[in-house]
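Field: COMPLEX_INPUT
Field: COMPONENT_COUNT = two
Field: RESIDUE_TOTAL = 536
Field: MODE = joint
Values follow.
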Amino acid sequence: MTEQHTADVRAAVDDAFRADWGKVVATLIGMTGDWDLAEECAQDAFAQALRVWPSGGIPQRPGAWLTTVARNRALDRLRRRVSEADKLKQASLLSPPGNPEGGGVDAGDIPDDRLRLIFTCCHPALPLEARVALTLRTLAGLSTAEIARAFLTAEPTMAKRLVRAKQKIRNAGIPYRVPPAHLLPERTSGVLAVLYLLFNEGYTATAGGRLVRHDLCAEAIRLARALVGLMPDEPEAQALLALMLFHNARRAGRVNAAGDVVTLEDQDRSLWDQREIGEAVVVLDAAARRGHRGPYLVQAAIARCHATAWAAADTDWALIADLYGVLEQMVPSPVVELNRAVAVGMAQGPQAGLDLVEALATSGRLDGYYLLPATRADLLRRLGRPADAARSYRDALGLAVNDAERRYLAKRLAEAEADVESDGP
Amino acid sequence: MNYLMLVCVDESVKLSKAEWATMTAEVKAWVAGMDASGVRLLGNQLAPASDATTVRVRDGEVLLGDGPFAETKEQIAGFDLIECADLDQAIEVASKHPVARFGALQVRPYI
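Field: COMPLEX_OUTPUT
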């Protein structure tokens, strides 16, 4: 066996892991109802692939091979349990084992249970952080250590969170299924919210030194892509995928070499991934053709305005302001209002934006949110009021937690203070 | 699966006579519906939390508390034992209980 061959096998197993881990786990949970057993047997199957594929060759359908091996392994273990506990009933529920080497296994006869798994992981009776962790563990195949690292949590804490979530699924009777029609819209938006949270956690890390954690963004996109494949008639899933792709396409321009934030206006647009933007446009158009207007569709349309403007000055801010207005009607939120104020400030001038920001500030609904004073500061700066701007930058600095964002605000504060000096007292 | 459904209300919220009458009628209708469908196994309204007594034994000594054990705003006003296929059905049953609109229902599975 050559070195090259070993590398090929490793790459094939890695590919299969990314493509099929969730499918294998989901199928095994569907078959056994035992989440831990499903994960362990899936792990065993991938370990066996590493052992067997170098000599036996990479199977034509790695996913089917892995599912069969994992299924046989689960059967073995359940039989042992059954003989130990003498519960024959359990074994009779299981289908007969297949042969991974033979041609008898068709990808078609292995059900894709991932949709059931997604809805169960994202059940609203589970705490939000558990939904996110469980989705990453069972669907994306991240290890507990990797998830803990991604969320800056200690590994034992994350392990406990996962154990508790699985316990609640079992003990409280959270069903392993795609919800019935009357629950589907609500539960689907719950699933989309978890995926978007995952993406945002990667895109703007809420704490710590780095602004972007690409691994989480990539996982979120991969999961959204899988969801689009599993729910081809759900335009909001497509819209969410498009939204993530538009954001992700700009990642190289968002942070400079020093790790500092570069504002949208100052980003080098040649760094944006045009292939990804192109894909996002195609996905968004497909979603829009379905005629359904949901909040992700509107957000993706806004992201498209930014991503497809060749220069900052070409941005259609009037359209963006209108879209934020539409979004505000769909999902009333002070953050959306703040974003609309920014767009209005660009379309109609800083004073118009400032009026909206001041009204928001008076309402007190964004108290403690650093982007409120940061936005106000920016508008004041553009109005030529550096002393007022400096005061607001200082307020924002007192509220921001991400290091990269803090450095950006500190820089702007220094500029505003310099302007005050040069203007005289 | 069996779930204990705790019906909780904020006792400081006072209902008017008319509201109370409507509520009572709606609860009766809920009970009748859930009994008929076989979901509700048993249940009852409870006397106010001020009538509760908390019992503890520490070092062999019986210690009594002159109220409920939790100092929360929402107190248990009643309970129902329900039998459902899964949590989604239990959530649906609870969400149809009239108290859900102003109080809170806790659905807790049997072990």
